[in-house]
Design goal:
Shape: elongated
Order of helices and strands: HHHHHHHHHHHHHHHHHHHHHHHHH
Radius of gyration: 40 Å
Structural class: mainly alpha
CATH class of one domain: Mainly Alpha
CATH superfamily of one domain: Tetratricopeptide repeat domain
Distance between the termini: 92 Å
Strand content: under 5%
Largest sheet: none
Number of strands: 0
Helix content: over 70%
CATH architecture of one domain: Alpha Horseshoe
Length: 456
């Protein structure tokens, strides 16, 4: 949007620039010799011989150096139009610094010469002295006999460009006041909208944005449509946002931005199916970004379609596999009842982490247990218990010790199993389960001993 402002201002200022003019200089105000030299300079300017015109006018000024001030003025050697025209030559040469010097000299001699103020403003803008450009445009408005409100617009834009949002709002609201809001030009509405948005006054910006979203064309129209939608969402005008989104989709169903917006709207409402459908359509119209792919994958998990989720996660993993992504892929494989694949990605996630992650290790142990790799599972749960105790996570440690006991029991390592259960029994959360497991082991061991005695 800021680029749009610069573009508007650049075009508009070109309309203000007057390379040479005698509009305000009546013949009776100019001595004859001044009129003659200006006429000669005009001919050189039309031929684009700017340096010759500058030299001609400066030599003319130098003729009055030995004269008294009143004589220099009366004979025209020190006339404001000479400085103004030299300034115009420098402006045409794009030598804005020297142009500023001569415009200021002209204005010192005639402060009410508003055309010099206009071109001085132009030079300040080209020199990126936006604050001074804004001040100069306001001066143009104050002394312009016609009180052209366009100068207020230029001033507001310069303040905006300089990041002076409050000053811009003050000037542009004055523009609204003097025009009484009637027949506002499109670019004026754009400037006012931008000022309110950058100044964090979204509600004041909204009516102008709504108008711009209708009356502009092409790319600018689409930009203002996006801004209008964004404002509805920001201001929590949900019904308006939803209705406007549907209006935009009906108007241009092949625009990916509207489907993306609809997806965000549904996400905000926790309507995961709706969000997924909208994002899927957006993906058919243009490739999803990596962030959008991640959102889509998460949505597939939320609506219980793990196969599509794992497809997207693995596609993203080709570029960079993060521990979080590996964990999510593993979760998808768990839902697909593919524990071997899940274990593969859990191990990748653990390898990628600098510090041992308790939740990843716990899940690894559970997968090893499901795959009946009991000794490996017992070792993993033992690690989890040790790390958890160091970090003060007693509930996790208790659960890990209990699972270590079950794993060792299934691995026929009864001594290790009993020891793990005894450790787990020290924690209230697992005490009952651990003691029951110990009792079951002892009973099973006694039965085994009796069976052995009978056989003997």
């Amino acid at each position: 949007m800021i680029k749009l402002i610069h573009y508007i201002l650049f075009l508009s200022i070109l309309l203000v620039f007057l390379p040479f003019t005698l509009i305000e200089a009546k013949e009776k105000e100019l001595p004859l010799r001044t009129q003659i030299v200006l006429y000669k300079a005009q001919g050189l300017i039309e031929k684009k011989e700017y340096d010759k015109a500058i030299d001609l006018l400066i030599r003319f000024q130098e003729k009055g150096k030995g004269l008294r001030e009143e004589d220099r003025i009366s004979k025209g050697y020190d006339n404001y139009m000479i400085d103004f025209t030299i300034g115009n030559c420098y402006l045409l040469k794009k030598d804005y610094t020297d142009a500023v010097s001569f415009y200021r000299r002209s204005l010192k001699k005639k402060p009410s010469f508003y055309l010099a103020w206009v071109n001085l403003s132009r030079c300040y803008y080209e020199l990126k002295r936006y604050k001074e450009a804004g001040d100069s445009f306001l001066k143009c408005y104050e002394i312009d006999p016609k009180k052209d409100p366009q100068y207020l617009y230029y001033g507001g834009i310069c303040y905006l460009t300089d990041g002076r949002h409050k000053e811009a709002i003050r000037v542009l609201e004055r523009l609204l006041e003097v025009t009484k809001g009637a027949d506002l030009k499109t670019e004026w509405k754009e400037a006012i909208s931008q000022a309110y948005l950058l100044g964090n006054y979204p509600r004041k910006a909204l009516p102008f944005v709504e108008e711009l979203s209708v009356e502009t064309k092409g790319i600018r129209r689409k930009q203002w449509q996006e801004q209008r939608l964004h404002l509805y969402l920001t201001l929590e005008m949900e019904e308006k946002a939803f209705n406007y989104l549907n209006e935009l989709i009906r108007e241009d169903p092949l625009e990916p931005k509207w489907w993306k917006g609809l997806s965000h709207f549904y996400l905000k409402k926790n309507n995961y199916k709706g969000a997924l459908v909208a994002l899927t359509i957006k993906g058919l119209l243009e490739p999803l970004t990596e962030q959008e792919q991640r959102i889509a994958a998460d949505l597939y998990i939320s609506v219980d379609i793990p196969y599509e989720a794992v497809r997207l996660y693995k596609k993203m993993a080709l570029k960079h596999l993060t521990p979080k992504m590996a964990y999510r892929i593993a979760q998808c494989y768990i839902r697909l009842h593919r524990p071997k694949d899940a274990l593969l990605y859990i191990e990748k996630a653990i390898e990628a982490k600098k510090d041992k992650d308790i939740s990843l290790l716990m899940l690894k142990g559970e997968l090893l247990y499901e795959l009946e790799r009991y000794r490996n599972a017992a070792d993993t749960f033992e690690d989890v218990a040790k790390i958890s105790l160091k970090k003060g996570k007693e509930k996790t440690a208790a659960k890990a010790l209990l699972m270590e006991g079950y794993s060792a029991w299934n691995a026929k390592d009864l001594n290790r199993a009993i020891e793990a259960f005894r450790m787990a029994a020290k924690f209230p959360s697992q005490r009952s389960s651990a003691l029951k497991a110990i009792e079951r082991i002892r009973k099973a061991d006694m039965i085994a001993m009796k069976d052995s005695e009978i056989k003997n």
